[in-house]
């Protein structure tokens, strides 16, 4: 069942039930009220009749007569019966004589007054005592008006329910059809979008917040997909180029060496070139494999408590040994007194690789100018800032430096494959960390890295 059909059915059924419940409640309330009202009318006439027939004061009797004639409408089949009780006659006698229910007379005699309903006929009477004489006055009338009004009300309600049902059915179908028109337009538009025209976007209506939000969400998704496709295209193109270059050299050197007899020195030079290119190819493939593994968290690496300051010192020591020209400065001015604020849960080897890539880039693109590393901590995070005085990154390219194989436009004079920073970002992300880049061409680049430390109030799942 389609959603619009389901919605129309639910709306129609709900409205129909409400209409039926309201109609039933109105009918039941009116029925109950009309019978109570008619009973009171008959009771009032019984009281007036007793005053009129049995009151000794003639003036009062005439007054009651005038009231009855001027203000009381005669009820349908209204009858007035006045009977003086005699000790030698039973209630069955009076009941038979006046065609009254014997139960009514007994209740009047016991309680002083009583009202009894027999079908549509209502009996109401009271006992009136004058000295040693006792009389019973009974007024009866057929509840014709109530029955007639109820029948009329029932017909009106049935017609109203019928018309309400048709109107509700129309409204249900109309709204269930038109309320999904914007969604249908979005669906039709999305169906037209493919990898060939992924640049297309949905219209975002301003007068419908929910639909506008849905269209905006789709557009944001399409933006991410388009970016992912572009990254994939660039990745394939760059990977093909990076892998193809050493392979071309290897094939060329081998082919050239095998064409004819050559001296041992030529063979040795060719083999050295092949070895260099093979090592380059090996480095690229291993880096790609490491990058892929760092982005997949199916089997999470072993975690332990790691001191971030010690990691940075280890990286500095390694670079100082490999290239004494590097000028790495560790700023300890903001290091917290509590060493626990410097500890995080993580994999030491992966973190060493991440920091080595970032610090290595800072040294490489700085032409051996000072690279400053500072460490500080808050109540929940340990923060590391790596600042260089290198060539910087063009502002429009900062958002792309974490894409595999991407290299800034001003790095042609420096060796590299564009894999280190994406790998570092993946490792930092695996450790629930964040990395931020600020850069200015010709001034330098600053990397700010944040990790939740082990004293953080909120438990971080790693």
Automatic annotation (TrEMBL):
Entry annotated with the keyword tRNA processing: no
Major location (coarse): membrane
Which residues are in the Histidine kinase domain? 238-455
Q: Which InterPro entries match?
A: BphY/WalK/GraS-like (IPR050351), HAMP_dom (IPR003660), HATPase_C_sf (IPR036890), HATPase_dom (IPR003594), His_kinase_dom (IPR005467), HisK_dim/P_dom (IPR003661), HisK_dim/P_sf (IPR036097), Sig_transdc_His_kin-like_C (IPR004358)
Q: Which reaction does it catalyse?
A: ATP + protein L-histidine = ADP + protein N-phospho-L-histidine
Q: Where is the HAMP domain?
A: 177-230
Q: Which Gene3D superfamilies match?
A: 1.10.287.130, 6.10.340.10, Histidine kinase-like ATPase, C-terminal domain
> A single Gene Ontology molecular function, please?
kinase activity
Which key words tag this protein in UniProt?
Answer: ATP-binding, Kinase, Membrane, Nucleotide-binding, Phosphoprotein, Transferase, Transmembrane, Transmembrane helix, Two-component regulatory system
Membrane-crossing residue ranges in chain numbering: 7-30, 152-175
Tell me where in or outside the cell this protein is found.
Membrane
Task: Return the EC number.
Answer: 2.7.13.3
**Entry keyword annotation includes Kinase:** yes
Q: What is this protein called?
A: histidine kinase
Please report the organism this UniProt entry assigns to the protein.
Flectobacillus rivi
């Amino acid at each position: 069942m389609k959603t619009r059909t389901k919605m129309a059915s639910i709306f129609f059924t709900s409205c129909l039930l409400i209409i039926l419940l309201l109609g039933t409640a109105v009918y039941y309330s009116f029925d109950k009220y009309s019978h109570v009202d008619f009973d009171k009318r008959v009771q009032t006439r019984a009281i007036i009749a007793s005053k009129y027939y049995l009151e000794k004061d003639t003036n009062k009797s005439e007054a009651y007569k005038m009231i009855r004639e001027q203000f009381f409408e005669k009820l349908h089949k209204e009858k007035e019966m006045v009977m003086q009780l005699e000790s030698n006659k039973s209630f069955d006698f009076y009941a038979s004589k006046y065609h009254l229910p014997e139960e009514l007379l007994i209740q009047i005699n016991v309680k002083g007054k009583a009202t009894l309903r027999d079908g549509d006929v209502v009996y109401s009477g009271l006992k009136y005592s004058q000295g040693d004489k006792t009389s019973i006055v009974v007024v009866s009338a057929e509840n014709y008006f109530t029955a007639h009004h109820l029948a009329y009300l029932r017909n009106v309600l049935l017609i109203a329910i019928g018309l309400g049902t048709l109107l509700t059915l129309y409204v249900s179908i109309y709204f269930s059809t038109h309320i999904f028109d914007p969604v249908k337009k979005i669906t039709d538009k999305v169906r037209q979008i493919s990898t060939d025209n992924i640049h297309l976007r949905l219209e975002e209506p301003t007068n419908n917040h929910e639909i506008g939000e849905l269209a905006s969400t789709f557009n944001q998704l399409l933006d991410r997909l388009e970016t992912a496709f572009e990254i994939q295209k660039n990745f394939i193109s760059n990977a093909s180029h990076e892998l193809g270059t050493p392979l071309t050299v290897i094939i060329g050197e081998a082919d050239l060496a095998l064409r004819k007899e050559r001296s041992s020195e030529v063979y040795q030079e060719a083999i050295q070139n092949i070895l260099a290119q093979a090592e380059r190819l090996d480095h690229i493939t291993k880096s790609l494999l490491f990058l892929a593994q760092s982005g997949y968290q199916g089997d999470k690496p072993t975690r332990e408590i790691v001191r971030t300051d010690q990691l940075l010192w280890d990286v500095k020591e390694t670079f100082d040994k490999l290239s004494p020209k590097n000028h790495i400065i560790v700023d300890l001015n903001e290091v917290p007194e509590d060493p626990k604020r410097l500890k995080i849960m993580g994999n030491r080897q992966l973190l060493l690789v991440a920091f080595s890539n970032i610090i290595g880039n800072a040294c490489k693109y700085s032409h051996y100018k000072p690279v400053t590393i500072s460490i500080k901590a808050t109540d929940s995070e340990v923060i590391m800032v790596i600042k260089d005085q290198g060539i910087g990154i063009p502002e429009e390219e900062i958002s792309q430096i974490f894409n595999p194989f991407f290299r800034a436009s001003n790095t042609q004079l420096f060796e590299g494959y564009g894999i280190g920073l994406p790998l570092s970002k993946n490792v930092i992300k695996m450790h629930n960390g964040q990395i931020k880049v600020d850069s200015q061409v010709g001034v330098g680049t600053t990397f700010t890295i944040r990790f939740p430390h082990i004293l953080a109030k909120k438990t971080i799942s790693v």
